[in-house]
Design brief:
This protein is mostly helical. The chain is built from nine helices and no strands.
Length: 194
């Protein structure tokens, strides 16, 4: 008995993603090649392109899934009470996002910052990250003179800046944690000028 086409299509897509995840685990994200995915999965190259708009399309799904795993965990954490706590909460996500330059590049290209018209899986994780951080900040001792959502957007901007400088040869002498400590303390605990 033949399975419905939808089931076969879903199964093929899942097989391609699973194959890619295995290759990534062995070799890394940047080393993944479409040719190796289709050969290992035992499908035609045309089948791959029927499911994904190239390597980047596949990577967008795989990377977004990992980002969502981190955000799932982060949603269960209590609100940070210090800048150090906030950085500790965010570091697993940052460490993944900077695990390879290729990963960071894909994230930036698909974050919505590149003026893409559709909201893809990675862009959705950026929105979700702001929501998670805004909930944390609502129950934290940090500044209350602006909305938690705006505070969270600022945190996210500083995270992206710290990660970008991590890959910059001119500016990478400071750790991401130290850079974030400076940025986030200034943003979340502003000092009143005398």
């Amino acid at each position: 008995m033949l399975k419905p086409i939808q089931d076969r299509t879903r199964a093929t897509r899942a097989k391609l993603i699973e194959t890619a995840q295995g290759i990534i685990a062995a070799k890394g994200y940047g080393a993944l090649r479409v040719e190796e995915v289709v050969q290992t999965a035992g499908v035609a190259k045309g089948t791959f392109f029927a499911h994904f708009a190239g390597k980047d399309g596949l990577m967008e799904l795989v990377i977004a899934a990992r980002l969502n795993t981190f955000l799932d965990e982060a949603e269960r954490w209590p609100a940070p009470q210090t800048i150090d706590d906030l950085i500790a909460h965010i570091m697993p996500l940052i460490q993944f996002m900077t695990t390879e330059r290729y990963v960071f590049d894909v994230i930036l290209r698909h974050s919505g910052a590149a003026a893409r018209e559709e909201i893809g899986p990675i862009a959705q994780t950026f929105t979700r990250q702001v929501d998670v951080v805004a909930r944390w900040l609502a129950d934290s001792p940090f500044r209350k003179d602006i909305s938690g959502h705006l505070l969270a957007e600022g945190v996210q901007a500083f995270l992206v800046q710290a990660m970008a400088l991590h890959f910059c040869a001119v500016s990478n002498s400071e750790t991401m944690e130290d850079r974030l400590l400076t940025y986030l303390d200034a943003w979340l605990n502003p000092r009143v000028a005398s």
